[in-house]
Amino acid sequence: MEKEQLKQQLKQQIVQFLNLTSVKPEDIKDDEPLFGEGLGLDSIDSIELIVLLSREYGITIQDPKEGRKILVDINTMADYIAEHKTK
Amino acid sequence: MYIHHHTCISPQQTFEHADVETLHESADNKLKAKEPVYKGIPPGILRRMGKAVRMGIGAALPVIKQQSLIDGIIIGTANGGMEDCIKFLNQIIDYEEGMLTPGNFVQSTPNAIAAQMGLLNKNKGYNITHVHRGLAFENALLDAMMMIKENPGNNYLLGAVDEISAYNYNIDLLDGCFKKEIIVNKNLYDTVSAGTIAGEGAAMFVVNDNAENAVATIKAIQTIHTKDEMEVSRVLQQFIQQTLPDNEKVDMLLTGENGDARLLKYYTEVESLFDEYTTIARFKHMCGEYPTASSVALWLVCNRHQWPAHMIKKQCKNSTVRNIIIYNNYRGLQHAFMHIVKYKC
């Protein structure tokens, strides 16, 4: 899958998994921070995102430090998925 | 116990600019709540809430705003966020007990409603949820009465919430609780078949021991478990003798008659205790049947000065409605009586 296509799919999945009813996938910028300012996600959302990676891409994040580097924005998530996905 | 503030989210226009004269119709034997635009719930929290939690918080926030000092939160709900609960259980199966998302689980427990109210309002007081099926609200009410007796001067948020979940509706339909043929709620009492229609809603009240400016007082409550209509009649007779002053009469009997032909014997027996002085009214065609539906009856008593024609089964000539008996019956087993004295008539 092309990286751009992967990013679009990821945005749709984030909106769906996190029930972001007031956000459209196309509104999420690739370099917009997911947590704090930007999309404004919180700690419960981080667990939802880890489950998303596991269910949809077969990726298991075991090290919290690793998670902090991956769950930064759409670019970092897509890069990690492209490299590590097992399904 | 005195009621001061009250709100209700129901299938009718009961929340903000209440208009219960207009009867909104059921669809597919379900009366679904008319949810308002929820003000005051942060979007990040609102998006995680299931319907029951949303309705509960949405109904509670306006009354908490009116009565800023709340000493405790007492909620009755038979099922809580059942829809989220089933989503969570399905996840366990779908993902073979692997990684599960916390959102559905957090929202699915019955006490999530009272807990969210406590969190949103930074209320660290008494916080409890009663889950006694068709008597969940009545037990919450009894708890509030006892808390007020133990702690004079305290204010409590008392409420009830239940939602229609696909799972519960299907199970209850198979169990014969809901009608097999499709009807509309305006014809609910004309049907002669078994079963009723499903409903949902949330009603909230601020209660305390201060009579000043109260809307109504709950003088007494009694609950019984029985399938014997004569037992129901006998207990109600005793209840009225004990709670009603000698020189007063029951002005209105508000019943939970729900169109289920199998339960009509209870209502017929109860109604036979009252003479032509007492108006008889019904409310389940407005909210449908659910375990905590009697909370809607209590809200109607607090809210109404004029009773819409569609509620009246037998109109009497008395002009003031002061002493009201609410009789509700859940599935022919759980019965509850409330004696309400209404003020500001």
Q: CATH topology of chain A, what is it called?
A: Non-ribosomal Peptide Synthetase Peptidyl Carrier Protein, Chain A
Strand content of chain A: under 5%
Largest sheet of chain A: none
Number of H- or I-type helical stretches of chain B: 11
CATH architecture name of the largest domain in chain B: 3-Layer(aba) Sandwich
The CATH topology of the largest domain in chain B corresponds to Peroxisomal Thiolase, Chain A, domain 1
Strand content of chain B: 15-25%
At CATH level 2, the architecture of chain A is Orthogonal Bundle
Can you give the helix content of chain A as a percent range? Answer: 55-70%
- The count of domains of chain B is 2
Order of helices and strands of chain A: HHHH
CATH class division of chain A = Mainly Alpha
Distance between the termini of chain B: 18 Å
What is the succession of H and E elements of chain B? EEHHEHHHEHEHEEEHEHEHHEEE
Structural class category of chain A: mainly alpha
**Low-pLDDT segments of chain B:** none
**In angstroms, what separates the terminal alpha carbons of chain A?**
12 Å
Multimeric status of the protein? heterodimer
Give the mean pLDDT of chain A. 91
Shape of chain A: globular
Query: Rg of chain A, please?
Result: 12 Å
Q: What would the keywords be for this entry?
A:
heterodimer, A: 87 residues, mainly alpha, Non-ribosomal Peptide Synthetase Peptidyl Carrier Protein, Chain A, 4 helices, B: 345 residues, alpha/beta, Peroxisomal Thiolase, Chain A, domain 1, 2 domains, eleven-stranded mixed beta sheet, two-stranded parallel sheet, 13 strands, globular
Describe it for me?
The complex is a heterodimer of chains A (87) and B (345). Chain A has helices at residues 3-17, 43-57, 64-70, 74-84. Chain A has 87 residues and is mainly α. Chain A has a single domain, classed as Non-ribosomal Peptide Synthetase Peptidyl Carrier Protein, Chain A. In chain A, helix 1 (3-17) packs across helix 4 (74-84). The mean pLDDT of chain A is 91. Chain B has helices spanning 43-46, 51-66, 82-94, 102-108, 112-120, 136-150, 166-174, 229-243, 264-271, 284-287, 294-303, and strands at 2-9, 30-31, 72-76, 126-130, 156-162, 198-199, 201-208, 216-225, 252-255, 279-282, 312-314, 323-330, 334-342. In chain B, the strands form two sheets. Chain B has an eleven-stranded mixed β-sheet, with helices on both faces. Chain B has a two-stranded parallel sheet with strand order 2-6. The longest helix of chain B has 16 residues, at 51-66. In chain B, a hairpin with a 3-residue loop joins strand 12 and strand 13. The interface between A and B is medium-sized, with 15 and 12 residues.
